[in-house]
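REQUEST ID: PR-0412
SUBMITTED BY: lab tech R.K.
PRIORITY: routine
TASK: structure prediction, single protein chain
INPUT:
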Amino acid sequence: MTNQVVKSEDRKGTSLFSHDPFSAFREEMNSLIDRVFGRSGGFFDTPSATPFSVGQITPSVDLHETDKAYSLTAELPGLDEKDVELIVRDGLLTLKGEKRYEKKDEKDEARVVERHYGSFQRIFTLPSDVDDAEIEAKFDKGVLTVTMPK
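STATUS: complete
OUTPUT:
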C-alpha cells in the first residue's frame, strides 16, 4: 500500500463524507434495468449474475470520530496490501485499488461469477481539523484502518 501525504492548507470541508458523483446514476440505472428486464427468481437470476447489472466494487467503510481523531475502516476482502493505494492530497483522502480475477486453470470455465473484480476508487473530504502529516494506515486480514489525528 502506498501512503502518500501532501500537506494542504486550503481545505473547506468540515466533515468526513464520501464523494461519489455517480452513485445516484448507478442506482437509477440498476433500478431501471430491474424494471425493464424483471427478475424471474431462478437460481442464477441474482443481481450480480445478471448480464445487465451495472455493478462495481465498492468497499464498505465505517467512519468514526473521537475527541482526538477520526478513523476510517474499509473492508477489502480478497485484496493484499500491494493492491491498495491511499492518497491524501488537497483536503481529500482517496482510497483506490484493484481486485484481479485469477483463472486457476486454462481449462476451467466459470459457470457463474458472482464476485466482483476490477478497480475501485472512493474519495472522502477531510475535515479541516485533520493533521495530514500524522495520518496512519494499517492493513490486516483484508481490513484497512486509517487513523486521522485532529
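NOTES: The beta strands are 2-5, 17-19, 61-65, 69-75, 84-89, 92-99, 118-125, 136-140, 143-149.
REVIEWED BY: pending
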